[in-house]
Structures are given as C-alpha cells and as structure tokens.
Amino acid sequence: MVGTNKTFKRCGCRNQQGKRLEQNCPQLPERGHGSWYFQCSAPNLYGRSERIRRGGFVSQAAARAAREDCLADSAARRTGDGWTVERWLRHWLDTRTRIRPTTRLHYTRDVELVLIPHLGHYRLSELDGPLLRAVFAEIAQTTNSKGKPQSASALSHLRTTLRAALNLAVREELIDGNPARHIEIAGYRRPHAQVWTEGRVEHWELTGEHPAVAVWTAAQLAAFLEANVEDSLFAFWWLAALRGLRRGELCGLRWAAVDLDRGMLVVERQRTTAGYTVVEGEPKTAAGRRAVALDKHTVAILRAHRSRQLAHRDKRHGNGQVCIDSGYVFTRKDGEPINPSYATTRFRKLTNRAGLPPVRLHDLRHGAASLAHEAGADLKTLQDLLGHSSIVVTADTYTSVLPDSQRRCADATAALVLAAARHTRKRIKEKASKNRPTGRAEKETPSGKRPTGKKRSRRSRSRRNPFRHGK
Fold first, then answer.
1. Are 241 and 370 in contact (CB under 8 A)?
2. Model-level pTM?
3. H-only helix segments in 83-151
4. I need a surface site. Which of 102, 182, 200, 247 has the fewest CB within 10 A?
5. Residue 74 confidence (pLDDT)
6. Distance, CA of 408 to CA of 263 (rounded, Å)
C-alpha cells in the first residue's frame, strides 16, 4: 500500500494470468512507460479525513504539482474562498433534514427566487455588511410574484433565511462572523392586532383600508357566530374564536382526542399546507401539545356537531354514496378531513356575507386571547391555552386591549388619583388646623391684643437660632 501524500508510477501491463502488474512491471524505469499518480489525505468540510488518488500524469513533477494543487483546493474549500454563496445556500438546504415541510418551502423560495439571483455569484469570504446592505437595497426596489413592491415583512424573512444559512458557515469556521446581522430593514415592525372600533369601521367603509391584523369586539364576534349558526363548520369557528385553536390544529383534530364527558380536548396533531401539499404531523413545539378545557356551551356545540356528522354519514350510506369514518372532527361530505386552505376560503366568504369588517382566520386566535384576558384570565393561563413556549409572545402579540378593558383601566386609574388627591387635601386641612393659635393663648395676653411677634428679646432670638452670631 502506498503511503499518504506520495507520488508513484504504475502501468497497465498484465502477466500471463491477466493480473495487472502495476508497480511491479519491469519496464517501469523506462521513460514513457506507464504514468505517474499521487495519493494524499485531506480533511473535508466537516473535519473528517478523506483519501484522494488521481493519476495519468506524464512525469513525477507533474504529479507532485497536481497533488499540491489538490491540497490547496481542499484547504480552500474549508474556507470562505472555496464556497460561492449559491453553492453554500444549496448545501445548507440539503443539510436541513429536521425542519418542517412548510419551513423548507419558505426557505427554498427565498433561496431560489431572490438570494441566489442577487448574491449567488459572490464568495462567502466576500460578504460583509456594506455589500449585503447594498444588495438588500436593490432587492427592495424589485417586485414580488404578485407584481407588488417587496414588503418590509418579506425583506425581514429574507434576512432571517440568509442569517440562518450563514450561521452554519460560522459554526463550520468558514467565515469569522455573520455579516447578515448588519442588515437593517427600514420600516419593519411586527404587526399587532387592532380592535375594530366604530371609528376604524367607518374608515374602512369609506376607504376600504384595514389593519394587517385586526380583532373583532365581543359584539362583532357574536354577530358572526349568530349569522353562521347553521353552517357545517360552526363548531370550527367557535373553537377558533373562543378557545384559540390554530387552523392546522382544528383540521387535524380527531374525535379520539376529544373527551366531551370530562370537557377536554388534547391538541396532538395538526394539518398544514406546504404549497399545494397537505402535511400532517405533530405540533411545532412541545408547548403546542396541550390539553384545552371546554365549557358546557362548547361541549353542547361539539355534541350537536357529532350528531349531525353521524346523521350525514348514515344518509349517504342509505343513498349508496361513499362516506368513510376517518375519525376527524371536521370533514368533507365524503368523510375525508378538510383541507386547511378550504377553511380559510370558507371563513372569508362567511365574513363578507355577514357584512362584518374583515379579519383573517388566524385573527380569531388573537381575539380569543384578548377576550379571555378581558374576562379575567392571567397571562400564564393564556400561554397554556394558546400553546406558547414563551409568555413574552403571549403578552406582546396575542393580547390586544379591548375598549371595555381600557375603559375599566382608565376609570380605576382616575379613581386612584382622585382618592390620593382627597387624602392629600384632608392631610393639609388637618395640619393647618393644628397650626392655628388657640383661644386660651389670646386671653393670657396682658394688653388683650394678639401678639404680633415683631419684638423679641435678644436672648429668645438666640435660643431660636443657635447658629447666629457665631454660636
């Protein structure tokens, strides 16, 4: 066996048995017979040693030069100089084997449609803050797939994708730091839910403009539920609006996870969409797998929904039509689980039909958190209800302060200030009454007149102020 980092010569001659002679050929010392090879060992990107063997060189000097070039190339591949951004982004996507299909879809769109066209030809070592800021400024001037300007939210998502990819390059020691952290997205603010007050409703009716994230008041939500009480997905809207379940959690909910006798359901599956493909799996985080308590009204609604579902199945069987028992709570006419996109489309149509200001299906979850908070639920209870891993998310994003709650807070604040003011006035009045001279002191005055206090002996003045006259 040839040692590591060696050059050697061999040929293709064979003996009488047809076995290759290679380095044992007697003609190898002759000039022009055989060819030169090299063998070396070099660490790959992950630090593991790999053996490299190449041949076909006309001289030993050529083999040695090729070996040195190979070692240099291997070293370059282990640095930012040996990777283009295009190659690295695709390598990064290939190594992300544990991400969810929806996350992979979003990453792939960012990489293939935007990042590679604008950054793919650069080397990793060439990336720095000024370059990335200039490139993102160019991206901001382009339009998206719908022909609209790139939004601040889309640019922020691009920055998140690029930063995640470059974080791996930092961990693999290809680059010293992540230059994506220097990218600033102008105008980006995380949207917060806005309540549909009367003023906002009037503005929407006049201009058609509406907040990106909006929340119905209790009266508006009641109007929607009352208008769609006969809808086949009424229980779907009820659970989303009052229990704060996500769309995917409702679409993946099975009767086996619902205990109507105990008034509880367990969120353990969800159905989401990745493009046009429906994906079902476990919740995204451990906190997403949770038990949700059900009140008696919700239990009654689910019992009625189950009765209608069974009656519909029996009717289809009686008519000779197919209707399977899939075990899902919300199904199509044939018993198969509904598509999450259908729930979104259906909700939009019912909202327009009811004449209510527009909200997204996911905004019902914001409203559930806000209504529960207004009803007296603390943040920890809301965190458990919504399945958040952090109470900060619950506090910052999903609890919009409704008008009635604001009014109660304002009244309580005003009452506190007024009570403090009354207490202060009372103390001032009591202190003033104590400082007034009594009637007895007036009677003891020889002249019958109230002492003016203008004439005092030097001794009394000295006693009152011991620091006068140097004392």
1. no
2. 0.69
3. 85-95, 101-110, 116-119, 129-140
4. 182
5. 65
6. 32
Q: Which two tokens stand for residue 410?
A: 């304002």
Residue 228 has pLDDT above 80, yes or no: yes
Taking each helix axis from N to C end, the angle separating 363-374 and 379-386, rounded to the nearest 10 degrees, works out to 150
> Which pLDDT does position 467 carry in this prediction?
41
The DSSP code for 281 is: E
Distances in Å between the alpha carbon of 440 and those of 336, 443, 445? 98, 5, 9
What is the identity of the amino acid at 140? A
CB neighbours of residue 99 within 10 Å: 13
The pLDDT score that the predictor gives to residue 6 is 81
CA distance 339 to 337: 7
Q: Of 216, 218, 284, which is closest to residue 248 (Cα–Cα)?
A: 284
Q: What is the mean pLDDT of residues 195-219?
A: 92
Is pLDDT above 80 for 428? no
Read off the tokens for 92. Answer: 């990064």
Name the residue type at position 279: V
- Tell me if 248 sits within 8 A of 228, measured CB to CB: no
Structure confidence by residue, pLDDT tens digits, 31-56: 888 888 888 877 665 556 778 888 88
Q: Which residue has 């009570």 as its token pair?
A: 419
Tokens of 249: 């959690």
